[in-house]
Specification:
Blueprint (H helix, E strand, L loop, with lengths): L1 H11 L12 E4 L14 E5 L10 E5 L12 E7 L7 H14 E10 L1 H17 L6 H6 L17 E10 H10 L3 H13 L1 H10 L5 E10 L4
Parallel strand pairs: 1-2, 1-4, 2-3, 4-5
Antiparallel strand pairs: 5-7, 6-7
Helix pairs in contact: 3-5, 6-7
Length: 225
Protein backbone atom coordinates (compact mmCIF):
# COMPACT_ATOMS: atom_id res chain seq x y z
CA UNK A 1 0.00 0.00 0.00
CA UNK A 2 2.65 2.55 1.01
CA UNK A 3 4.82 1.43 -1.89
CA UNK A 4 2.03 2.44 -4.30
CA UNK A 5 1.55 5.71 -2.45
CA UNK A 6 5.29 6.42 -2.59
CA UNK A 7 5.42 6.12 -6.37
CA UNK A 8 2.17 7.91 -7.14
CA UNK A 9 2.66 10.86 -4.79
CA UNK A 10 5.70 11.99 -6.80
CA UNK A 11 3.80 11.60 -10.07
CA UNK A 12 0.79 13.56 -8.83
CA UNK A 13 3.05 16.56 -8.23
CA UNK A 14 3.91 16.59 -11.95
CA UNK A 15 0.35 16.56 -13.31
CA UNK A 16 -1.19 19.81 -14.60
CA UNK A 17 -3.49 21.52 -12.08
CA UNK A 18 -7.20 21.79 -12.66
CA UNK A 19 -8.15 25.08 -14.26
CA UNK A 20 -11.05 26.34 -16.29
CA UNK A 21 -10.80 23.10 -18.28
CA UNK A 22 -10.15 19.73 -16.68
CA UNK A 23 -6.77 18.41 -17.89
CA UNK A 24 -6.92 15.23 -19.94
CA UNK A 25 -4.76 12.55 -18.31
CA UNK A 26 -3.91 9.09 -19.66
CA UNK A 27 -2.33 6.32 -17.61
CA UNK A 28 -0.72 3.46 -19.53
CA UNK A 29 -0.79 0.11 -17.72
CA UNK A 30 -3.18 1.41 -15.08
CA UNK A 31 -4.73 -1.86 -14.00
CA UNK A 32 -8.15 -1.46 -12.40
CA UNK A 33 -7.21 1.49 -10.14
CA UNK A 34 -3.96 3.17 -11.10
CA UNK A 35 -3.95 6.88 -10.35
CA UNK A 36 -7.54 6.61 -9.13
CA UNK A 37 -6.34 5.28 -5.79
CA UNK A 38 -4.90 8.72 -5.00
CA UNK A 39 -6.23 11.01 -7.76
CA UNK A 40 -9.88 12.04 -7.54
CA UNK A 41 -10.33 13.68 -10.94
CA UNK A 42 -11.39 11.91 -14.17
CA UNK A 43 -8.69 10.26 -16.25
CA UNK A 44 -8.33 7.54 -18.88
CA UNK A 45 -6.66 4.30 -17.86
CA UNK A 46 -5.58 1.71 -20.40
CA UNK A 47 -4.30 -1.84 -20.01
CA UNK A 48 -4.29 -5.12 -21.89
CA UNK A 49 -6.77 -6.51 -19.33
CA UNK A 50 -8.55 -5.54 -16.12
CA UNK A 51 -8.69 -8.05 -13.28
CA UNK A 52 -11.78 -6.42 -11.76
CA UNK A 53 -14.22 -3.59 -12.41
CA UNK A 54 -12.20 -0.41 -13.03
CA UNK A 55 -12.38 2.08 -10.19
CA UNK A 56 -14.11 5.45 -10.50
CA UNK A 57 -13.12 8.08 -11.69
CA UNK A 58 -11.09 6.16 -14.28
CA UNK A 59 -12.51 5.58 -17.77
CA UNK A 60 -11.05 2.24 -18.81
CA UNK A 61 -9.83 1.44 -22.32
CA UNK A 62 -8.52 -2.02 -23.14
CA UNK A 63 -5.47 -1.76 -25.39
CA UNK A 64 -1.70 -2.21 -25.52
CA UNK A 65 0.66 0.64 -24.70
CA UNK A 66 2.51 -0.17 -27.93
CA UNK A 67 -0.56 0.76 -30.04
CA UNK A 68 -2.67 3.40 -28.32
CA UNK A 69 -6.06 4.02 -29.99
CA UNK A 70 -5.86 7.80 -29.54
CA UNK A 71 -5.08 10.67 -31.89
CA UNK A 72 -1.85 12.64 -31.72
CA UNK A 73 -1.81 15.14 -28.85
CA UNK A 74 -4.99 13.78 -27.25
CA UNK A 75 -3.83 14.23 -23.64
CA UNK A 76 -2.27 17.00 -21.60
CA UNK A 77 -0.21 14.44 -19.69
CA UNK A 78 0.54 10.72 -19.99
CA UNK A 79 1.66 8.52 -17.07
CA UNK A 80 3.28 5.07 -17.05
CA UNK A 81 4.06 3.95 -13.49
CA UNK A 82 5.92 0.68 -12.88
CA UNK A 83 5.14 -0.57 -16.37
CA UNK A 84 8.42 -0.59 -18.29
CA UNK A 85 10.12 -3.28 -16.17
CA UNK A 86 7.28 -5.68 -17.07
CA UNK A 87 7.91 -5.32 -20.80
CA UNK A 88 10.38 -7.10 -23.01
CA UNK A 89 13.25 -4.72 -23.88
CA UNK A 90 12.18 -4.51 -27.53
CA UNK A 91 8.72 -3.21 -26.53
CA UNK A 92 9.90 -0.37 -24.30
CA UNK A 93 10.83 2.00 -27.10
CA UNK A 94 7.43 1.45 -28.73
CA UNK A 95 5.62 2.46 -25.52
CA UNK A 96 7.76 5.60 -25.19
CA UNK A 97 7.06 6.56 -28.80
CA UNK A 98 3.31 6.08 -28.36
CA UNK A 99 3.24 8.03 -25.10
CA UNK A 100 5.06 10.95 -26.71
CA UNK A 101 2.74 10.82 -29.72
CA UNK A 102 -0.49 11.17 -27.75
CA UNK A 103 0.84 13.71 -25.22
CA UNK A 104 0.50 17.45 -25.77
CA UNK A 105 2.82 18.60 -23.01
CA UNK A 106 4.15 16.05 -20.52
CA UNK A 107 4.92 12.33 -20.15
CA UNK A 108 5.88 10.82 -16.79
CA UNK A 109 7.58 7.43 -16.55
CA UNK A 110 8.40 5.82 -13.23
CA UNK A 111 10.08 2.43 -12.92
CA UNK A 112 12.61 0.40 -10.90
CA UNK A 113 15.85 1.49 -12.44
CA UNK A 114 19.11 -0.31 -13.11
CA UNK A 115 21.16 -3.19 -11.76
CA UNK A 116 21.00 -2.37 -8.05
CA UNK A 117 17.21 -2.22 -8.08
CA UNK A 118 17.10 -5.57 -9.89
CA UNK A 119 19.46 -7.13 -7.35
CA UNK A 120 17.23 -5.89 -4.54
CA UNK A 121 14.18 -7.57 -6.10
CA UNK A 122 16.12 -10.83 -6.34
CA UNK A 123 16.83 -10.52 -2.60
CA UNK A 124 13.16 -9.86 -1.93
CA UNK A 125 12.17 -12.87 -4.03
CA UNK A 126 14.56 -15.05 -1.98
CA UNK A 127 13.03 -13.67 1.21
CA UNK A 128 9.56 -14.76 0.09
CA UNK A 129 10.88 -18.23 -0.71
CA UNK A 130 12.69 -18.52 2.65
CA UNK A 131 9.39 -17.78 4.42
CA UNK A 132 7.52 -20.32 2.25
CA UNK A 133 5.29 -17.54 0.94
CA UNK A 134 4.35 -17.39 -2.73
CA UNK A 135 5.95 -14.29 -4.30
CA UNK A 136 3.47 -11.91 -5.95
CA UNK A 137 3.13 -12.17 -9.72
CA UNK A 138 4.52 -8.66 -10.26
CA UNK A 139 7.74 -9.65 -8.47
CA UNK A 140 8.14 -12.79 -10.56
CA UNK A 141 7.72 -10.66 -13.70
CA UNK A 142 10.42 -8.28 -12.42
CA UNK A 143 12.94 -11.12 -12.63
CA UNK A 144 12.23 -12.02 -16.25
CA UNK A 145 14.01 -9.11 -18.01
CA UNK A 146 16.83 -6.69 -17.19
CA UNK A 147 15.52 -3.55 -15.54
CA UNK A 148 15.35 -0.46 -17.76
CA UNK A 149 17.45 2.62 -17.02
CA UNK A 150 17.96 6.16 -18.29
CA UNK A 151 19.35 4.82 -21.59
CA UNK A 152 15.73 4.39 -22.69
CA UNK A 153 15.52 8.12 -23.25
CA UNK A 154 18.81 8.80 -25.00
CA UNK A 155 17.14 9.34 -28.40
CA UNK A 156 14.21 11.58 -27.53
CA UNK A 157 12.69 13.49 -30.46
CA UNK A 158 13.66 17.18 -30.80
CA UNK A 159 11.72 19.51 -28.56
CA UNK A 160 11.49 17.23 -25.52
CA UNK A 161 13.29 18.00 -22.25
CA UNK A 162 13.88 15.37 -19.55
CA UNK A 163 14.21 15.74 -15.77
CA UNK A 164 14.80 12.90 -13.29
CA UNK A 165 13.79 12.43 -9.65
CA UNK A 166 14.81 9.61 -7.28
CA UNK A 167 11.93 7.66 -5.77
CA UNK A 168 12.33 5.38 -2.74
CA UNK A 169 15.88 4.86 -1.57
CA UNK A 170 17.02 1.25 -1.94
CA UNK A 171 17.24 0.52 1.79
CA UNK A 172 13.89 2.11 2.53
CA UNK A 173 12.18 0.26 -0.32
CA UNK A 174 13.52 -3.09 0.88
CA UNK A 175 12.40 -2.36 4.45
CA UNK A 176 8.96 -1.27 3.26
CA UNK A 177 8.39 -4.28 1.02
CA UNK A 178 9.30 -6.66 3.82
CA UNK A 179 6.83 -4.90 6.13
CA UNK A 180 4.09 -5.13 3.50
CA UNK A 181 4.37 -8.90 3.59
CA UNK A 182 2.57 -8.80 6.96
CA UNK A 183 -1.16 -8.12 7.33
CA UNK A 184 -0.77 -6.07 10.52
CA UNK A 185 1.68 -3.66 8.90
CA UNK A 186 -0.56 -3.30 5.86
CA UNK A 187 -3.48 -2.42 8.13
CA UNK A 188 -1.41 0.24 9.91
CA UNK A 189 -0.26 1.70 6.59
CA UNK A 190 -3.83 1.92 5.29
CA UNK A 191 -5.01 3.52 8.53
CA UNK A 192 -2.24 6.12 8.41
CA UNK A 193 -3.04 7.01 4.79
CA UNK A 194 -6.70 7.45 5.73
CA UNK A 195 -6.15 9.50 8.91
CA UNK A 196 -3.03 11.55 8.15
CA UNK A 197 -2.39 11.43 4.38
CA UNK A 198 -0.45 14.69 4.31
CA UNK A 199 1.94 13.54 7.04
CA UNK A 200 2.46 10.18 5.35
CA UNK A 201 3.17 11.94 2.08
CA UNK A 202 5.83 14.17 3.67
CA UNK A 203 7.48 11.18 5.37
CA UNK A 204 7.57 9.16 2.17
CA UNK A 205 9.08 12.06 0.26
CA UNK A 206 11.91 12.19 2.83
CA UNK A 207 13.05 8.79 1.56
CA UNK A 208 13.16 9.79 -2.11
CA UNK A 209 16.95 9.71 -2.21
CA UNK A 210 19.91 8.18 -3.99
CA UNK A 211 20.71 5.38 -4.43
CA UNK A 212 17.09 4.99 -5.48
CA UNK A 213 15.08 1.87 -6.22
CA UNK A 214 12.82 3.71 -8.65
CA UNK A 215 13.34 6.82 -10.74
CA UNK A 216 10.74 9.20 -12.10
CA UNK A 217 11.44 10.57 -15.58
CA UNK A 218 9.53 13.74 -16.47
CA UNK A 219 9.51 14.43 -20.20
CA UNK A 220 8.24 17.88 -21.14
CA UNK A 221 7.56 19.18 -24.62
CA UNK A 222 9.08 22.62 -24.95
CA UNK A 223 6.43 23.88 -27.36
CA UNK A 224 3.16 21.97 -26.91
CA UNK A 225 1.11 21.20 -29.99
Amino acid sequence: MLNRAARYFVILEQLPPAGANEPRILEIGSGSEGLGEFYQRPFVGCDVSFSREPRHPMRAVMCSGTALPFADGSFDAVVASDVMEHLAPEQRGEVIAEALRVARHRVIFGFPCGTRASELDHRLFAHYKARNVAPPIWLEEHLQNPFPDSQLFQDLPPGWHIATKPNEGLSFHYWLMRREMHRAWNYLFRLALFLIPGTVRRILRMFDEEPAYRKIFILTRQQPT
